[in-house]
Structure formats: C-alpha cells, structure tokens
Design goal:
The structure holds 2 protein chains of 2 kinds. Chain A is α/β, with parallel strands linked by helices. Helices cover about 30% and strands about 15% of the residues of chain A. Chain A has 2 domains: about 270 residues, Aconitase, domain 3; about 180 residues, Aconitase, domain 3, CATH 3.30.499.10. In chain A, the strands form 5 sheets. Chain A has a 5-stranded parallel β-sheet with strand order 5-4-3-6-7, sandwiched between helices. Chain A starts with 5 loop residues before the first helix and ends in a 5-residue tail after the last helix. By secondary structure, chain B is an alpha/beta fold. Helix content of chain B is about 30%, strand content about 15%. A 7-stranded mixed β-sheet of chain B has the order 4-3-2-1-5-6-7. Chain B is globular, with a radius of gyration of 20 Å. Chain B starts with 5 loop residues before the first strand and ends in a 16-residue tail after the last helix. Classes of the chains: A alpha/beta, B alpha/beta.
C-alpha cells in the first residue's frame, strides 16, 4: 500500500463515494450546531425534512449568550430569540443541547474536545470557521456554511473536493513567553492570510510535540486565519492522556487507542507543500493591522508603507494604519491600549487562564478588561485553582463563558476608536464592534498589556515566576 | 436555485485586499431571517464610514452585478450571510485573485460565481471599472475590457452553477450507500455514537 499522510487516512476513512469530477461524499461523525445555525435549520424546515442523526448532532449556546446576569431573563430581545430558537430546534429534533444553563455550557470549540465528543479519527463539522480547532486531537475538522449545515442535518454527509496537503514543521524549542499563539501568528505573517488556502495542514516538529493539547487546539484553531481548510496534529500519548476519562470518551478505550495509533503520516509519505519554522526565530508576537497577517514581534516597529515595493500591499498597510490610528515607524511596545479581553475559542482554556494569571498575580491592571473562560467547566476549574481571585484582584471582570467580545454578537463590544489587547482570532475592521481596534496576542501578552497599559514584551514580567 | 451560464452586467471595482466576511456583513445583522433581505447589510460599516467616495456608494455603481476585488476576498468566518448580502444586493459574480475557501463554497451554493483571475488581470479589470462585462461559464472567460480574461473555477462548481443543483436532492440518490457506510462505521468506530457505544451519559 502506498504511504499516506495523516490527512489521506482521515479522508479515506470518511469517503462514501467519489464522483468522476472529483467531488467526494464524506460521512460526518460530529455535527456541532449553535444559535447561529438558524439559517441551516430554517432550510431544513423549508424542505420539511427531519434531522437524520440526532445522536451525532450536538448543540451549544455560545455565540449570542450573555456573559453577565445569566440567572436573569436576557434583556436583548434579538439575543433572547436566538437562544430560544436553538432550544426549540433541540426540542423539535431531539439532539443533546449544552444550553445556556447547562453546567457543561461553553464555546463549541472548547466544549467539544473537553467533553470527549471530538475524538481522534473523526470528521467534525460546524457552521463556524474555527472548527479547524478540533484537528488538534487528530480529527478532520472544518467550518461549513448554512447550506452545508442543512445538508449535514438532512443527510449526515458533506460534499468536498480533496484539499492539497501541507506539512508545517516547527523545529527547536519555544523560548520563555512564546507559545502556540506566537507560532500561529508567525506562520500567518510569513505566508499570508491566504497562505494555506485550499490546503489541509499537518503541524509537526519538536515544538508541536512539546505543546499541550490546549496549545495544539490554539494552533489548529488559527489555521483558518492563514486560509487553511483544516489543521491537525497526529495524536500521541499527550492526546490520549488528555482525553482519557472525559465524559464521552470511548468505554472500549483500548480498542479505540489501538485504532488511533494508525493516525500518523507514514514514513516517506509526501506532502504537496512543506514549510519549516525555527523556534529560535519566534518571539512573542502582536498584530498591528486589520488582518491576522499584519503581525510582528513585539520588539519590532510598525511597518512603513512608503518602504514597501508592492503598491497594493502599501495601500493595504496605509488603510490598516489609518483604521488602527497608528503611525509608521513607531515601536510596537509604545502603543497604549484602552482595555483588554481574555477569552474566545482561541485562548480561553485553563492553560491560557493560568498563563495570564501567572503574569497578573500580585499586580494591578492599568486598564479595564474582561476575562471570559472558554467553558463553564473551565470557569469552575479556574475558580477551584483561585485564578478568578487573581483576575479580580488585578481589577479585571470575571464573567461567564461564551464567544463574547471576540465577535460581539451578545453585546460585549469594544467602543468605537477604542484599542483592545485581545486573545482572540480576528483583528478585522469592526470585528469587536464598529470602529473597534483589535491587537491579537497570547494570553500572557494580554496580561502584560493589562499590567503596563500598553503593548508589552511579557518576557521581563515573567522573570522569577512559575509559568 | 436556478442555473446560469452567461452574465452580462455592470462591473464595479473594490480595490482592496482581504475584504473579510466581517466587513461583507457585520455580525450584528446576522440574526435577521433571510426573508428580511440582506442586501442593505452588504459592506455596511465600510460604506457608512468611507462616505460618497466608496465605490459602491457612487451612483454609477447602481445595478452592478459583478464585483472585482484584490486577493483573499471573503476570508474569515463561515457566515453564509456574507454571500446572502452580495446576492441580495444583486451580485452574481465576484472576480479576485483568491477567495476564502468557505466563502467560495458558500457562494456556489447560492449561485454566486467566485471567479479566480491572475493579479495582473485583476489590476487591468479594476482600472477599467465601472464598465459592462460579460462573464461566460461555458468558456470560462470575461470579456468587455480589452483582451478576454480567462478565469479559473473548479469543474465541480462550474457544473453546479450551470445546473443550479441542490445538493440535498443530489445526495438523496446516494441513500443506500450512506446507510451501508453508517452501518460499517458503527462496527469500526462505535464510539462515534456515544449512547449506543456505552459512552457515559451526557450529565455532568
């Protein structure tokens, strides 16, 4: 048999049929739905069709849920309607819902892995682009649109054309204060926001192996910001130790582990594309513009569009600096921020909160900010570890779990013209609210920005601290 | 969805890179039902802040059905609402050097053509806008602005756009193969069905 890469194996394991034109019908093991999936359910209703596999469909209230006053009626009528519609659809179609008041509620891409609902070897879809996250466990996860959501609801399958395969190697060891977020923003800055377009990315190398599952989830989460169809890490003992005993983990564990042990790229298997990054060159990184590709090490200065040879890129940089209220040539660590946000499917897992707390412990934030844990279980664990006290004592708000200020659908917004250091995934114009200015960075770097009130290299702040 | 093969229409230029889905439709508009019409949400905040100089705000852009932009158009989120906004505003074709993958597939599912052309062709077409263009799915060409421009399109998507196929209807003919596959999957990976495989109850 020919040598196959991990992605080939995941693909082959799910192909029901391939047409002559190359389109393949794939089986879906997990379909996560959320309040924003209402267009998909509306299409299903329009066709008068039933949900075909309620047992493989899991609902999560995350995109619109309030992060404060959870015990009170939702004040915003639109938000209340969105949450209610998901409840109604769960009732009507009979799928398990992690609703607003469920003790396991959380952001779909935090909750799925955390519950053991996402497992190695699975094909996972959701009407959300950050479904690439689930690849961290050795799964094939990708975001789909509403038409495809309806198709999955009705058939438990999805049509795809096989993406090309890219291997991204991170060699060497991460330096202090450098983590998965820095690795991700680094490759996106190097290859561009469409650099991995039409590719399935497998992350490998010593620095990837050294990442915890939380770190791998962050890395895979951001695959979509570089345009990749999906990102993945081959499962290993780190993956298995993390998954064992989770609520939906297989009871026949040994048999599952046996099968999952095949989920690696075979020696000699070829990728369509290979890129290597040396960790020695990766410093804590922040974004300065309006695309995740607009990222640079915190030690750098803001780029000067007049020095760029490509006129289209220069125009883009000029527009970005104008929107962000920044001037070319200025050191990044001189930029003051108005507020901070720690949250989102990218960086709100327990390890992220620990990393931020390690910087904030015994210190005061110079600017206001909000910490929204990735799930209600993460929130409970953080409280058991006393992390909530560290955030509150530093002057930050400790709120409930949801997509919150990453996308602003629930009303948690950054005000027009305000600058936010954020652990989220998109610094697009208006992403955190109309006119909002977002700088993306790791949880430790956001904590550092909170402590000094400006973009700050976290490394000196970590000296003498356990991280 | 109706199939189509030729679009004769007015082309407008949006000379920007990375026109992401959050700009195409800001998140706050996405709770509206589709029947409300999404055309008014298209590029809402950009149009508001950029003023009358913004290409789509100019009187000569009225009635346009072809949009030309720079690289990575529609990158970002999976929100199909970004496509609804374009379609409801009357667009049939977007021409750019590259597209967000999910956006492109959402486009095809709504009869909107994501036509990929070279950077050089993009710049040439941008400089000709606003102008009348013909986009032909049969010949994969764009004509009306000097030499014809060839565009790239996945053959699967081309067939789909031309036939106006609905995937759910198409997939119905695979029902037996899907059922066979599901039965095999239950044997080889029973944990996919947590309840039947004895996965612990969902209560925490």
């Amino acid at each position: 048999m020919t040598a196959r890469v991990l992605f080939d194996k995941l693909w082959d394991d799910h192909v029901i049929s391939t047409r002559e034109d190359g389109a393949a019908l794939l089986w879906v093991d997990r379909h996560y739905v959320h309040e924003g999936s209402h267009h998909g359910f509306a299409r299903l209703a329009q066709r008068g069709q039933a949900l075909t596999q309620p047992g493989l469909t899991y609902g999560v209230a995350d995109h619109y849920v309030p992060t404060r006053g959870r015990d009170l009626p939702i004040p915003d009528a639109d938000v209340a309607r969105m949450v209610r519609t998901l409840d109604d659809n769960a009732q009507r179609h009979g799928f398990r819902l992690f609703g607003l008041h469920d003790p396991g509620q959380g952001i779909v891409h935090v909750l799925g892995p955390e519950q053991g609902l996402t497992l190695p070897g699975m094909l996972v879809v959701c009407g959300d682009s950050h479904t690439s996250t689930h690849g961290a466990l050795g799964a094939y996860g990708f975001g789909i649109g509403a038409t495809e959501v309806a198709h999955v609801l009705a058939t438990q399958t999805v049509w795809q054309k096989k993406p090309r395969r890219m291997r991204m190697v991170f060699s060497g060891q991460a330096g202090p204060g450098v983590g998965a977020k820095d690795m991700a923003l680094n490759w996106i800055a190097a290859l561009g926001a469409d650099g991995a377009r039409c590719h399935a990315v497998e992350y490998t190398g010593s620095a990837v192996r050294a990442l915890s599952v939380e770190g791998r989830l962050t890395l895979c989460n951001l695959s979509i910001e570089g345009g990749a169809r999906c990102g993945m890490v081959a499962p290993d003992s780190v993956t298995l130790d993390w998954l064992k005993g989770r609520p939906f983990a297989p009871t026949d564990w040994n048999r599952a582990v046996d099968i999952w042990s095949q989920l690696v790229s075979d020696p000699g298997a070829e990728f369509d594309h290979e890129v290597t990054f040396d960790m020695a060159t990766i410093a804590p990184i922040v974004t300065w513009g309006i695309s995740p590709e607009d990222a640079a090490p915190i030690t750098a200065t803001i780029p000067d569009p007049d020095r760029l040879s490509d006129p289209s890129r220069a125009a883009q940089v000029r527009a970005a600096l104008d929107y962000m209220g920044l001037t070319a040539g200025r050191p990044l660590d001189s930029v003051t921020v108005d507020q901070v946000f720690i949250g989102s499917c990218t960086n709100a897992r327990i390890e992220d909160l620990r990393a931020a707390a390690a910087v904030l412990a015994g210190r005061r934030a110079q600017v206001p900010g909000m910490v929204s844990p990735g799930s209600s279980l993460v929130k409970a664990q953080a409280e058991a570890e006393g992390l909530d006290r560290i955030f509150i004592d530093a002057g930050l708000d400790w709120v409930a779990s949801g997509c919150s200020m990453c996308v602003g659908m629930n009303g948690d917004l950054v005000a027009p013209g305000k600058r936010c250091a954020s652990t989220t995934n998109r610094n697009f114009r208006g992403r955190q609210g109309p006119g909002a200015r977002t700088h993306l960075m790791s949880p430790a770097m956001v904590a550092a920005a909170a402590v000094t009130g400006r973009l700050t290299d976290v490394r000196p702040l970590l000296q003498g601290r356990m991280v | 969805m109706r199939g189509w093969s030729v679009e004769d229409g007015l082309a407008v230029g949006l000379p920007l890179e990375n026109v992401d889905t959050d700009q195409l439709i800001p998140a706050r508009f996405m709770s509206a039902p589709r029947s409300a019409g999404y055309g008014g949400f298209l590029l809402h905040d950009l149009r508001q802040t950029a003023g009358p100089d913004f290409p789509l705000n100019q009187p000569q852009a009225a009635g346009a059905s072809i949009l030309i932009a720079r690289r990575n158009f529609g990158g970002g989120s999976s929100r199909e609402a970004a496509v609804y906004a374009l379609v409801d505003a009357g667009f049939r074709v977007v021409i750019a050097p590259s597209f967000g993958d999910i956006f492109a597939s959402n486009s095809v599912n709504n009869g909107l053509l994501p036509a990929r052309v070279t950077e050089a062709a993009t710049e040439r077409l941008l400089s000709a806008t606003p102008c009348a263009l013909r986009v032909n799915l049969d010949t994969l060409t764009i004509t009306g602005a000097g030499d014809p421009v060839a565009f790239e399109l996945d053959p699967v998507w081309r067939t789909k756009l031309m036939n106006g196929w609905d995937d759910i209807d198409l997939t119905a003919s695979y029902a037996d193969r899907i059922a066979d596959f599901a039965a095999r999957r239950r044997e080889t990976a029973p944990w996919v069905w947590p309840d039947s495989a004895g996965g612990k109850a969902a209560d925490l």
